[in-house]
Design goal:
Shape: globular
Oligomer: single chain
Number of helices: 3
Structural class: alpha+beta
Largest sheet: 8 strands, antiparallel
Length: 239
């Protein structure tokens, strides 16, 4: 008399076979997710709030270890070795709705920041502005030179290119402050000063929401030209 085999043997054997065939791929995906969450990431930039430094279609490289070490997939820090500095380009979760944003730090804790008609003052020092000639602008901006103005903004030893529109965006305030940046908070602005949802919309950014520092552009696609690559922007560093 033959005894019937347990019904669970075949399914279990099937799952073990699937695991043996796919475990390498599954482990690779798991390692990549851990890497992107805690060590380094690359983020698409779908908007123009950081023009001229970051164009729409740029894919930026973000150093998640620039300031601290987080438990993957959380905002919990287990070690901290640095704090964001003025002019750093950082990614963070918006305190307003949790969306991932990229902006530039203008004020660190203790700073007093003011802006009057898009003229920046930090700790009482007036920023200096020098217009960038149209022929020195990257091609997408060169074509728009009659509608925009790009200047090099210098204050407290830091420098970056900022852009203004000759026809101002009515919903973006060109003046605010003076305001004091609280402890463990940062004041961020977009380099595209007339078209950025930054401090003027979301307020100060808590330190714990900052995820990493954007160091460079990995590659770039031109959305307005059939998504062709902008090879001149590959591996370009961000100031």
């Amino acid at each position: 008399m033959q005894h019937p085999q347990p019904e669970s043997t075949a399914p279990q054997s099937g799952w073990r076979k699937v695991w043996r065939e796919w475990r390498g791929f599954v482990l690779f995906i798991a390692v990549m997710l851990l890497f992107r969450s805690a060590i380094a990431d690359w983020n698409q930039v779908p908007t123009g709030s950081m023009i001229p430094s970051i164009l729409e279609g740029d894919r930026i490289v973000v150093d998640k270890l620039a300031y601290d070490l987080r438990i993957p997939f959380t905002l919990i820090r287990v070690a901290r070795w640095a704090d964001p500095a003025r002019s750093d380009v950082v990614t963070f979760e918006s305190p307003e709705d949790g969306k991932l944003l990229v902006k530039r730090i203008i004020g660190v804790p203790g700073d007093v920041v003011e802006m009057q008609d898009n003229q920046l003052l930090v700790n009482g020092e007036q920023a200096q502005y020098h217009t960038v000639p149209a022929e020195q602008l990257p091609d997408p901006l060169h074509r728009l030179s009659r509608r925009i103005q790009v200047s090099q903004e210098q204050v407290l030893g830091s420098s970056r290119a900022v852009m203004l529109h000759r026809l101002r965006h009515p919903q973006i305030r060109s003046s605010f402050g003076p305001v004091a940046v609280p402890d463990n908070h940062y004041l961020v602005l977009g380099d595209n000063r007339d078209n950025s949802q930054d401090y003027r919309v979301i307020g100060f950014v808590p330190r714990d929401l900052i995820l990493g520092k954007a160091n460079s552009i990995a590659f770039s696609l031109d959305y307005e030209n059939y998504y062709l690559p902008r090879s001149e922007r590959f591996f370009q560093t961000l100031n």
